[in-house]
Design brief:
The protein is an alpha/beta fold. It has one domain (1-275): 3-Layer(aba) Sandwich (Rossmann fold). Helices cover 42% and strands 19% of the residues. It contains 11 helices and 7 strands. It has helices at 2-11, 16-26, 36-43, 49-56, 77-85, 97-109, 148-158, 196-205, 217-234, 242-245, 250-262; strands at residues 67-71, 89-94, 116-120, 133-139, 159-172, 209-215, 266-274. A 7-stranded mixed sheet has the order 3-2-1-4-5-7-6. α6 (97-109) links the parallel β2 (89-94) and β3 (116-120). α7 (148-158) packs across α8 (196-205). The longest helix has 18 residues, at 217-234. The radius of gyration is 18 Å and the shape is globular.
Length: 277
């Protein structure tokens, strides 16, 4: 489990709650006054943020009071969206203990804690009974998971029949050497990029049926362009952003990511699969 420890260390800030408080204060807010919408700049740690979350879930319906799981929940942005948008009960897991602790504070402040349960846990060893969930989401997590087939098998086990598993990951799309650091890994030691073909084969091997596949390359490049445009217009970076999470080399990490999406070495891709009935 050394790799998982190193991955958790990569994401650990050390003083994250205080950093968020300071950023909010500079923007004229406090933890008691901030809204869930204002937190989306930091609590949706995947390309496209809340916009990408809503697009992944576009057209997806869950029954009222559905039991949902978000793998790699981070600071809980997606779990809060699921709980509020679908009036569902949501469980979130993440390797990084600090993320879980800060997310629990945010849930309390936003008055949504009673609908969300957050746990520190591994994606390849889910601590849940068979057939526990009516849907599972996983946004930008597979890049840190070495044994994806074990992950997919455990998700399949925990899902109820006729339920969806929604994935949004960065995948390797050509044979170019990947340049690090990247937002999810400083070196290749904790990065486990795979191809779309590999994802599909492993998902099908454990029993999933593929429902939809969507390349999000154009969306990602447009998103980064719009973010750069806002910074250029305002003259400064937003006070609360993913840079608050990524303390070291944030600019270099995102520069590498954008360059490699542009060159088609990497592509963010959605895969939606279903556990058959």
């Amino acid at each position: 489990m050394i790799s998982e420890v190193n991955i958790a260390n990569h994401y650990t800030h050390g003083n994250l709650l205080n950093a968020i408080k300071i950023a909010l204060s500079k923007a004229g807010h406090t933890l008691d006054s901030v809204s869930a919408e204002q937190l989306t700049a930091i609590d949706e740690f995947h390309i496209g943020g809340r916009e990408a979350t809503t697009q992944l879930l576009n057209g997806i319906t869950f029954a009222a009071e559905a039991q949902l799981l978000d793998i790699g929940c981070g600071l809980g942005g997606t779990t809060r969206y699921l709980a509020s948008h679908y009036t569902s009960y949501v469980t979130g897991i993440d390797l990084t203990a600090e993320y879980i602790k800060v997310a629990q504070v945010l849930n309390q402040k936003l008055g949504i804690a009673e609908r969300i349960n957050l746990l520190q846990a591994s994606a390849t060893s889910l601590p849940f009974a068979d057939d526990s969930f009516d849907g599972v989401t996983m946004l930008h997590v597979g890049m840190n998971v070495a044994d994806k087939q074990a992950l997919f098998a455990d998700v399949f086990r925990c899902l109820r029949e006729n339920s969806l598993f929604l994935i949004y990951d960065v995948m390797k799309t050509n044979k170019d050497t990947v340049n690090y650091p990247l937002p999810w890994a400083s070196t290749s030691d904790t990065s486990y990029l795979s191809s779309l073909d590999s994802y599909q084969r492993k998902l099908k091997a454990v029993g999933f049926n593929v429902v939809a596949i969507n390349s999000r390359k154009d969306f990602a490049l447009d998103y980064f362009k719009r973010q750069s445009g806002k910074i250029a217009t305002n003259g400064v970076k937003p006070l609360l952003s993913l840079h608050t999470l990524i303390q070291d080399n944030a600019k270099l990490k995102f520069s590498h990511l954008i360059d490699q999406i542009s060159s088609n070495a990497l592509t963010p891709i959605e895969i939606i699969v279903k556990k058959p009935g």
